[in-house]
Every structure is written in structure tokens, then in C-alpha cells.
């Protein structure tokens, strides 16, 4: 069988002429492909830009650092350390970071750096092979004004435009009016606010202090010798008379830690985009099926004219390929635009929870190739059986409609049986998996099984409803509804998937919000929480103790550490301690038996530790397990600094507590244990109970201790901020769910246009028998809305199942959060009502348009 390019070309020209006369068919196919690719590329571009930002993150206006220097007691660095490194010829950059507030009480993060040093270090694509050389700074950077400590901050031009559009006056931070300097997007500031270090120290009230120092080693001879690089820094500090043991030297990890932390977040977004992609493909497949069905007579005529079947099949495949290419190009462009809209939402979430900075996004042609390849494969795989079936049409069939090879009810039963088998298999496998990636894969199988149940469910529902209908027109209306199940099934499957996703996400978000509020009520017990500059903690603590209206002061210590157990390498954790009252009364325990006197006695003696639920789930740690922590060294290990972690004492995990929102696992030790080891002695934060007006205490701290309002948080303020932050965490998935529902509604709209166009002849016969146009419209609308109603009824239990799996499997394994599942019936009712109204509009408009035409012409066309 040789393919004839001329015959294939002629077939394509004929198909093109057909689409010119029936543009709705081509539009339906392209619409599905465009919507599918748009959502797929939009989320992919957003995720890829975020992941690239982790690995390519640079110091603002500079290149990526090799090492970071900070104080081991978590206090700020003296700027003398920076001057010592610069005098030693080490390329370094001083950085200061802090939170300030505006008159409206909003908090802003400000970064300050040595602007001259930053712009003098040349950006290179490979920091290990090129030396830093001086380059001319951007003309948009007003160096002279910045170096004179004038109140000005630099931001990307797009961000400045947005702020100017919303602002009613100049930006005032810590009572200082600021000038916003717009710089080019390619400088990579993103959403960051950057000032010269001299002004930033004044704004943050941290004179002669630094948050950290970035070190840049670019000599080829030192490229891979990490120890040599560290020794250079240590020798420079020792020669300047500074104690290098008080300074931590952390190596740049190429964004690996952030990538590990945010992996589950991005995976959830990918899952949502794939769901939207599948919904779009349903729409496209529905369009292809309808187009092929309407062209059966044309195919037979082409075969009768001598065109071989394999040439016709090749032309049909090439037609789908061309439509996919066109749809993918449009979808790719729209997806990039969607990404520009989604990225600010992702940036807020990643910055607030994970501390990640997103750089300006770039697009890549590889994304189009991936989207095109996936769409083309899925489209051909879905359409291939239908194409083969149509290519085998008997020539003797003439123009008659092709008979169904398999009775509809039998096909519906086969689909339902396959769905039940998939659901049963996933129910068994869910009990065996502990990895969220596998659980998400199983969730995908459940998502595939759910729409397969729909045709059989609607068919059974209508069968049960028929005997209840009175004889006459309404009995006919319900009975004939069975005839439109098959042509509407794909569109309704898309609606079902979108509804299930909305219901499950509403369940997750609503349950999480209630759980979070309950946890915050238990966790927050003080009236005011204070997190000042670590250097100022002793003075503020002394002032608070002298205040007579303060009834209690609570303290918290925090540092980074590494945990080790027998089967694991070092695990980064936050080592935490609080006063014993706070630990006892504000820790919400997941594990039982935490109220006995022996439990707390062992804890205070340093025999046991408490760990957070996310740490427990991620690394399979349980009560009774033995662990070691590098910062808690024995007396012998403290004497010999070279001792490794194997010489540290062993602790028993005695309790697991709930912890929401902390991306790093926590280990809590008793305050007495903290004081026995070489850990930061000053607490990182304070909390107080106050008998009086809490605002008066805040004003006293501002006026007498020089604190900024951004460093103080009331109990209610923390609750509001936490709820707001976690709402934003799920906001992008809620947006994607809404987009998916909108896509499914558009698909139903196109399906209704095609279906009403195909049913004009039966409607015309009823019209000829005396049924009015109004009755016809009510009848057809009722039929379609009945199918939509059955779809919504199936979506409620199926959405609840997806919500249960999201809460108790995927979210628990991915984030380590136990969430009590709650039923939000009003939210479910709103989703169903929105779906019904959307579908009513999608059904009514094409029906009205089609039935306005002279119905008698449809009978005439049918007779031709």
C-alpha cells in the first residue's frame, strides 16, 4: 500500500472546503486543543520559571555567591567583618535585610547591599570560570543619590508602575518618605525592594550591622576546592583579629534545598494543569467525533470515487495533526500570557512560606514542543479507534448513518465495570503507599475512573425516572433523553471532572482553614509577640521585666541543626526551645501519653525530644526512635571540635506535635538542655501577657526601645496573617479549578451547538406535528438540564472521595499536615448552582439560535 501525496492533498482540500461550510466543527476541535494547551503551558511556564529561579538566584544586581557568612548566635554581623574581607582582597558583598511597616500597618521587606560592590562584580554564565571585573552600571541606577544615603529604594519598573497606580501618595516606611527608583527588568530585582546599605541600615535601625556577607570565588584554581576557599576566608578573619569560630560559613547549594522544599507545591500545580489538559482534550475529542460523524457521507463518496482507504486515513490523521499544530501555537501564546498572570500569585506563596525569590520569567520553545508532542500523542491515541472504524465503512452503506458496532447500553456497562475495577485497585494500593508522588498517581487513576461511571449513572437515573412521568409530551421528553446521553457524554465528563475538582478543593481549603484556626487558638497564648533585631533582645527583655503590667514573659530560641538516625544521612532541621510553660500548654500533640509526670520529667532532663509531624512523616520517624543532633554535643565532643556527629548523645523521640506552615522539620528540646550546650543564648523572639491596652504597650516599645511596628504582632494579627497566607497558598489551585470549570462549560457550549444542529430534523418533525417553538426549547433544555443534574449528583460523592484522598493521603504525605475533614454543604451547593446556571446558559443560547431558523428547511435537507 503506497501512499499517494496527490490524493492525500486532494482529500485535505475537500476537508478544508467542508470546514468552510461548517466552521463550528473546526472551531470545536481547535477550542478544545487551545484551552488544553493554554492551561498546560501556563502552569508549566510558571513552575519552570520558579524552579529556574532557585538555581539561578543571584545577589541583587550581582552574581550568585559561593558562600554566605553569618553569626552563629543568630545576631547580626558587625560590618567590620566585611571591611576585613575586602581589605584581604576577597570579593564580598555586604547585605542587610529586615521588615519595615507603613502607616497602614502593612509590612514590607527591604534589602540593602553595597551597591558599588554589587555592580562591580560582573555577571557571568559560569561563576567558576571567570574573574569578577568592573562593568559600567546601568544608567537607571542613580549611584550618586544612593551612595549619599538619600531615602530611595530601587524596584523593577513594572512593580513601580503597579505601586504608583495603587498609591495615594509617596511610600512611607518607618515614618520615612521614600523615592521609588524604577530600574530595568533585566536587572533581576523582581518584586524585591533594594536600597544602598547606608540608607538601609538607617531605615532598619541597624547601624553598622549586617544580616550576612556573600562571598564570590571565581578563580579557576579554586573552582572545586571548597576547603581551600573556606581557609582563605578563615585566614582573612584571623589576620584581622576576628574570631572565626563565631561565624558560620555556608556553601551555596544551587537552589537544591528550595527545590526539595517546594517540590510538593509544584507537583500539585502540575496535577491541576494535567486535569485541565484532560478536560480540554475531552472537548477536542468531542469535536473530532462530531466532525467525523457529520462527514460519513462525504467519506463514502470519496471512497466510491476511487480514493484508497489508507490514503483517506492518512488524510484524516494529517488533518488532526494540522489542527493540533494550529491549536498548540495559539494555546502556547495564551499559556504564556496566563503564566504572566499566575506568577505573581506563585511568587507571593513561595516568598511567604519558603522564602524563595522569583526572578523575571522567560519562555522557551521547548515548552511548545513538549505541549505539542503531548497534545498530538493524546489526540491521536484518543481518535485512532474512531478513525479506523470510519475507514472501514462499507461502500454499500451509502449515505445512511453508520450503525453502532456496540449497543450503547453495553458500552456504558463496560465503561462502568472498568471504572469499578480501577477504583477497587486504587483502594487497595492507597493503603500500601507512603509517598505522595505515588498517591498523586493513584489519585490520577481515580480521576480517570470517575467520568467512566457517568454514562451508566445517567442511563440508570433516566430509566428510574421514566415510570414516574405522566403520559404524553413529558414522558416522551424523558424517554428521548437516553438518545442524547452518548453525544453529550464527553462534554458531561469534562463538567464532572471540573465539579469534582472544585468540590474536593473546597473540602480541602475549608477543612484546612478550620484546622488551622483551631491550631492557632491552641498555639497562641500571649497577648503580644515580639521579634526584634537579635542584638536588641537582652535590652528589650530587661525593659519588659521591669514593666509592672506585664504578667508573663515567654521566650523562644531557634537555630539550624542536622538530625541523624541509623538509616538516614543528615537531615536539616530547626532546633527549637521555649520556656517549659509554653511547651506544655501550647504544643498540640499528635501522639498520645504526653500528660504524665514521667513524660515531662524525662523531657526536662534531656533524655527525650519532641518532633513536628511533617518531620515525622517525611522521614518515617516515630515515638521511641533514637536520633542524634549535631548541635547537641557531649562534653567530650565540645572539647575536641573535630569529633563527628557519631560522638553526640542519643535522644529518644517521646512526642510528635502538629505543625502547620513550617517547610523545615522541627525538633523541640527542653530549655535546660539548650542552656547546657553551645547554642545561641539570646532568644530569637519574645511573647508577653499584658494587663492593659496592648496598643499602649506597642507604642511604649516603639518610643522607648526604638522597635518598629513590623517587629510586633498581636495574637489576632498573627491569626489573620496566618489565615491570609495559607489562603494564598491554595489560591492558585482554586483559580485553576475555576478555569477548569470554565473550560468545561465552554466545552458543553460547543457540544450543545453541535448537538442541536444535528437534532434540527427531529425537532422539525415535532414542530410539524404541532409542538410550538417555545415547547421545543423547553423540552430540549429540560432534557439537557436533566443530564446536567445527574452529573452534579454524581459529582457530590465523587468530589467528596477526591477531597478525602487529597486530605488524608496527598496533603498529609506531601506537606505533613493532618487535617480534619469537614463537610461544607453550602459550598457544595454553590458549586452545583454555579454549574447548573453555567450549563443552562451553555444550553439555552445555541438552542435559541438554532431554533430561530425555519425548521421546515431541516426536513428538506434530511430528505436530500
Give a verbal description of the structure:
The protein is an alpha+beta fold and 864 residues long. Among the domains are: 59-257, no CATH class; 267-394, no CATH class; 533-706, no CATH class. It has 29 helices and 20 strands. The strands form 4 sheets. It has a 6-stranded mixed β-sheet with strand order 8-4-3-10-1-11. β6 (171-173) and β7 form a beta hairpin. It is elongated and about 100 Å long. Residues 123-135, 398-406 and 635-646 have low confidence and may be disordered. Keywords: Cell membrane, Membrane, Transmembrane, Transmembrane helix. It is found in: Cell membrane. Belongs to the ABC-4 integral membrane protein family. LolC/E subfamily. InterPro entries: ABC3_permease_C (IPR003838), Lipoprotein-release_system (IPR051447).
Strand content: 5-15%
How far from one another are the termini? 35 Å
Helix segment tally: 29
Total beta strands: 20
Radius of gyration computed on alpha carbons: 33 Å
Q: State the shape.
A: elongated
Please identify the structural class as seen in this structure.
alpha+beta
Largest sheet: 6 strands, mixed
Give short descriptive properties of this protein:
alpha+beta; 864 residues; Lipoprotein-release_system; six-stranded mixed sheet; transmembrane
Compose a concise summary of this entry:
By secondary structure, the chain is an alpha+beta fold. It has 29 helices and 20 strands.
Topology:
Blueprint: H1 5-21, H2 23-56, E1 67-71, E2 77-78, H3 79-87, E3 92-101, E4 107-113, H4 115-120, H5 143-147, E5 152-156, H6 157-166, E6 171-173, E7 176-183, E8 194-196, H7 197-203, E9 209-210, E10 212-215, H8 226-239, E11 247-251, H9 256-294, H10 296-304, H11 309-354, H12 365-391, H13 408-430, H14 436-452, H15 454-465, H16 473-481, H17 485-523, E12 528-530, H18 537-546, E13 550-564, E14 571-578, H19 580-586, H20 597-604, E15 608-612, H21 613-618, E16 626-629, H22 635-639, E17 650-657, E18 666-668, H23 671-676, E19 685-690, H24 694-705, E20 712-714, H25 715-758, H26 760-768, H27 773-815, H28 825-851, H29 856-863
Parallel strand pairs: 4-8, 5-7, 14-18, 15-17
Antiparallel strand pairs: 1-10, 1-11, 2-9, 3-4, 3-10, 6-7, 12-19, 12-20, 13-14, 13-16, 13-19, 15-18, 16-17
Helix pairs in contact: 1-2, 1-11, 2-9, 2-11, 2-12, 2-25, 9-12, 9-14, 9-17, 9-25, 11-12, 11-25, 13-14, 13-15, 14-17, 14-27, 15-17, 15-27, 16-27, 17-25, 17-27, 17-28, 25-28, 26-29, 27-28
Amino acid at each position: 500500500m503506497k501512499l499517494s501525496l496527490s490524493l492525500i492533498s486532494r482529500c485535505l482540500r475537500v476537508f478544508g472546503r467542508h470546514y468552510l461550510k461548517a466552521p463550528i466543527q473546526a472551531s470545536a476541535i481547535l477550542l478544545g486543543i487551545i484551552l488544553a494547551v493554554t492551561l498546560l503551558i501556563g502552569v508549566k511556564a510558571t513552575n519552570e520559571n520558579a524552579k529556574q529561579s532557585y538555581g539561578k538566584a543571584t545577589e541583587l544586581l550581582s552574581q550568585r555567591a559561593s558562600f554566605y557568612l553569618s553569626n552563629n548566635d543568630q545576631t547580626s554581623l558587625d560590618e567590620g567583618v566585611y571591611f576585613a574581607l575586602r581589605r584581604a582582597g576577597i570579593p564580598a558583598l555586604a547585605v542587610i535585610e529586615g521588615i519595615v511597616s507603613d502607616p497602614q500597618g502593612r509590612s514590607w521587606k527591604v534589602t540593602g547591599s553595597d551597591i558599588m560592590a554589587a555592580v562591580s562584580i560582573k555577571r557571568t554564565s559560569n561563576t567558576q570560570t571567570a574573574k569578577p571585573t568592573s562593568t559600567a552600571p546601568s544608567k537607571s541606577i542613580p549611584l550618586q543619590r544612593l551612595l549619599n544615603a538619600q531615602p530611595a529604594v530601587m524596584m523593577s519598573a513594572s512593580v513601580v508602575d503597579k505601586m504608583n497606580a495603587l498609591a495615594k501618595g509617596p511610600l512611607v516606611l518607618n515614618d520615612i518618605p521614600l523615592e521609588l527608583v524604577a530600574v530595568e527588568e533585566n536587572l533581576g530585582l523582581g518584586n524585591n525592594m533594594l536600597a544602598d546599605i547606608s540608607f538601609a541600615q538607617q531605615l532598619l535601625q541597624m547601624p553598622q550591622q549586617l544580616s550576612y556577607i556573600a562571598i564570590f570565588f571565581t578563580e579557576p584554581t579554586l573552582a572545586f576546592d571548597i576547603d581551600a576557599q573556606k581557609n582563605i576566608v578563615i585566614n582573612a578573619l584571623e589576620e584581622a583579629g576576628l574570631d572565626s569560630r563565631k561565624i558560620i560559613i555556608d556553601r551555596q547549594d544551587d537552589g537544591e534545598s528550595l527545590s526539595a522544599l517546594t517540590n510538593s507545591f509544584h507537583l500539585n500545580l502540575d496535577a491541576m494543569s494535567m486535569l485541565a489538559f484532560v478536560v480540554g482534550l475531552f472537548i477536542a475529542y468531542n469535536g473530532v467525533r462530531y466532525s467525523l460523524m457529520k462527514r460519513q457521507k462525504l467519506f463514502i463518496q470519496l471512497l466510491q470515487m476511487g480514493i484508497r482507504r489508507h490514503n483517506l486515513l492518512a488524510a484524516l490523521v494529517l488533518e488532526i495533526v494540522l489542527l493540533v499544530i494550529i491549536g498548540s501555537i495559539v494555546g502556547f501564546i495564551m499559556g504564556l500570557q496566563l503564566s504572566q498572570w499566575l506568577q505573581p500569585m506563585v511568587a507571593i506563596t513561595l516568598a511567604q512560606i519558603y522564602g524563595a525569590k522569583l526572578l523575571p520569567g522567560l519562555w522557551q520553545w521547548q515548552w511548545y514542543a513538549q505541549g505539542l508532542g503531548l497534545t498530538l500523542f493524546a489526540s491521536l491515541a484518543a481518535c485512532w479507534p474512531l478513525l479506523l472504524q470510519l475507514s472501514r465503512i462499507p461502500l454499500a452503506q451509502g449515505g445512511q448513518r453508520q450503525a453502532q458496532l456496540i449497543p450503547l447500553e453495553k458500552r456504558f456497562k463496560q465503561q462502568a465495570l472498568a471504572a469499578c475495577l480501577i477504583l477497587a485497585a486504587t483502594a487497595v494500593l492507597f493503603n500500601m503507599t507512603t509517598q505522595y508522588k505515588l498517591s498523586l498517581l493513584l489519585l490520577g487513576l481515580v480521576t480517570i475512573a470517575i467520568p467512566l461511571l457517568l454514562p451508566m449513572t445517567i442511563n440508570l437515573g433516566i430509566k428510574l425516572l421514566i415510570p414516574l412521568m405522566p403520559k404524553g409530551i413529558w414522558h416522551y421528553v424523558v424517554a428521548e433523553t437516553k438518545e442524547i446521553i452518548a453525544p453529550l457524554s464527553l462534554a458531561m465528563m469534562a463538567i464532572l471532572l471540573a465539579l469534582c475538582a472544585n468540590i474536593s478543593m473546597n473540602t480541602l481549603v475549608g477543612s484546612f482553614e478550620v484546622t488551622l484556626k483551631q491550631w492557632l487558638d491552641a498555639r497562641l497564648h500571649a497577648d503580644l509577640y515580639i521579634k526584634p533585631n537579635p542584638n536588641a533582645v537582652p535590652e528589650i527583655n530587661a525593659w519588659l521585666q521591669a514593666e509592672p503590667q506585664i504578667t508573663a514573659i515567654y521566650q523562644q530560641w531557634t537555630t539550624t541543626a542536622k538530625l541523624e538516625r541509623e538509616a538516614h544521612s543528615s537531615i536539616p532541621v530547626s532546633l527549637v526551645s521555649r520556656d517549659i510553660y509554653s511547651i506544655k500548654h501550647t504544643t498540640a500533640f499528635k501522639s498520645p501519653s504526653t500528660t504524665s509526670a514521667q513524660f515531662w520529667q524525662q523531657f526536662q532532663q534531656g533524655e527525650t525530644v519532641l518532633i513536628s509531624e511533617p518531620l515525622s512523616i517525611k522521614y518515617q520517624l516515630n515515638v521511641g526512635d533514637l536520633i542524634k543532633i549535631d548541635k547537641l554535643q557531649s562534653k567530650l565532643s565540645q572539647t575536641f571540635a573535630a569529633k563527628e556527629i557519631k560522638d553526640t548523645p542519643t535522644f529518644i523521640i517521646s512526642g510528635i506535635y502538629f505543625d502547620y506552615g513550617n517547610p523545615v522539620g522541627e525538633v523541640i528540646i527542653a530549655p535546660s538542655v539548650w542552656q547546657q550546650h553551645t547554642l545561641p543564648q539570646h532568644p530569637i523572639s519574645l511573647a508577653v501577657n499584658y494587663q492593659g491596652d496592648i496598643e499602649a504597650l506597642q507604642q511604649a516599645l516603639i518610643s522607648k526601645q526604638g522597635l518598629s511596628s513590623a517587629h510586633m504582632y498581636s495574637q489576632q494579627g498573627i491569626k489573620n496573617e496566618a489565615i491570609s497566607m495559607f489562603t494564598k497558598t491554595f489560591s492558585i489551585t482554586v483559580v485553576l479549578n475555576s478555569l477548569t470549570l470554565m473550560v468545561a462549560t465552554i466545552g458543553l457550549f460547543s457540544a450543545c451547538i453541535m448537538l442541536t444542529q444535528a437534532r434540527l430534523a427531529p425537532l422539525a418533525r415535532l414542530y410539524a406535528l404541532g409542538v410550538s417553538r417555545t415547547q421545543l426549547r423547553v423540552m430540549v433544555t429540560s432534557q439537557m438540564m436533566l443530564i446536567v443534574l445527574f452529573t452534579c449528583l454524581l459529582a457530590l460523592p465523587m468530589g467528596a472521595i477526591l477531597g478525602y484522598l487529597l486530605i488524608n493521603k496527598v496533603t498529609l504525605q506531601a506537606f505533613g499536615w493532618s487535617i480534619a475533614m469537614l463537610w461544607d454543604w453550602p459550598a457544595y451547593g454553590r458549586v452545583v448552582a454555579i454549574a447548573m446556571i453555567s450549563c443552562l446558559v451553555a444550553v439555552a443560547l445555541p438552542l435559541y439560535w438554532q431554533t430561530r431558523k425555519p425548521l421546515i428547511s431541516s426536513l428538506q435537507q434530511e430528505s436530500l
